[in-house]
Backbone:
DNA sequence: TTAGCCTTGATG
DNA sequence: CATCAAGGCTAA
């Protein structure tokens, strides 16, 4: 009983930390605790001392929830939202891989048409790329062609994955909710408090749907929710922090 | 190879 | 019927 009520209460009360546009001091201290997480480049540390360079990143295990599960999120170059003026927010409308305009949901999240096609070709043809640099090339709209390796790595980092297998574990609602957590983290990282408030509203909406679907679901989903309970106060930078 | 466009199949 | 996303197609 306590646990269930905890899930419910956390949902609403936790989101309550966005009463006003400030969104700053609201709920309490924990809002800034997210800084403890280090999103920058964390995703790329996946291969600290594997092969020196040019190792294959096309491991199908990344595409499915086997073991480690979700890949980490990535801080996109699109985060050039540094311009306070662009209240258009909507990091969600920018491809998290290259920053181009999204054309819809592709392989789990909103991406542009080119990255969708790139991901498709890579997976279908089992392409294996190599990076001649340090496997940390910046990917944006103009440079996305330069290094397919880092581009695909980024695709994996932001959570692109094959349909079917990916959602059957936790469900589409939780998956999208996790995406929003990452977006929220991004906004907080850029001190875009206006967007933080907006994203919290979106997040709450997603959480309600996810909770509704998770309520009558398997224990697996509930375990995820226990993770999310913590994430509400400390928005994670990567999926791995939610689904270990 | 890329990326825009098209067709297909699923869903409501 | 409309919408959406996966996959196919093909001109640069
Ligand atoms: Zn893209
Ligand atoms: Zn690279």
Residues:
């Amino acid at each position: 009983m306590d646990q269930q009520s905890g899930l419910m209460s956390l949902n609403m009360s936790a989101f309550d930390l966005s009463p006003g546009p400030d969104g700053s001091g609201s709920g309490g201290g924990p809002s800034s605790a997210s800084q403890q997480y280090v999103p920058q480049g964390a995703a790329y540390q996946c291969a600290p001392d594997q092969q020196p360079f040019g190792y294959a990143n096309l491991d199908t295990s990344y595409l499915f929830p086997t073991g480690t599960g979700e890949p980490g999120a990535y801080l996109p170059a699109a985060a050039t939202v540094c311009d306070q003026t662009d209240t258009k927010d909507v990091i969600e409308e920018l491809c998290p891989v290259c920053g181009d305009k999204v054309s819809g949901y592709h392989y789990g999240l909103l991406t542009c048409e080119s990255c969708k096609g790139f991901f498709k070709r890579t997976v279908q043809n089992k392409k294996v790329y190599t990076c001649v640099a340090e496997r940390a090339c910046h990917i944006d709209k103009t440079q996305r062609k330069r290094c397919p390796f880092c581009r695909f790595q980024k695709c994996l980092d932001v959570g692109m994955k094959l349909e079917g297998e990916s959602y059957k574990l936790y469900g589409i609602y939780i998956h999208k909710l996790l995406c929003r957590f990452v977006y929220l983290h991004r906004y907080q990282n850029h001190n875009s408090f206006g967007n933080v408030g907006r994203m919290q509203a979106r997040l709450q909406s997603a959480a309600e749907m996810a909770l509704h679907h998770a309520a009558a679901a398997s224990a697996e989903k509930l375990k995820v929710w226990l993770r999310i309970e913590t994430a509400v106060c400390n928005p994670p930078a990567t999926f791995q922090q939610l689904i270990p």
